[in-house]
Design brief:
Blueprint lengths: L1 H6 L2 H11 L1 H15 L2 H10 L14 H4 L3
Length: 69
């Protein structure tokens, strides 16, 4: 799920939504947050699913300090 949400094309995303369903993918994004997806992908999916709350990654503020690339 993580790889398809991060790197998938339209056909792969269709397969993901047909296989797992919108609610399971929504829950994955809400539970896994920016520690499993890049910041860009996480914020895209967060807006797509209109998430108001999600589980914050431990030490999320250190992410860019440790690896700024």
């Amino acid at each position: 799920m993580q790889r398809v949400l991060e790197y998938g094309d339209l056909a792969e995303l269709r397969w993901l939504f047909e296989t797992y369903g919108r609610s399971a993918i929504n829950e994955f994004v809400r539970q896994r947050d920016e520690s499993w997806l890049s910041r860009r992908a996480f914020y895209f999916w967060r807006r797509y699913f209109k998430l108001q709350s999600w589980k914050r990654a431990p030490n999320h503020h250190l992410r860019e300090q440790l690896w700024p690339f």
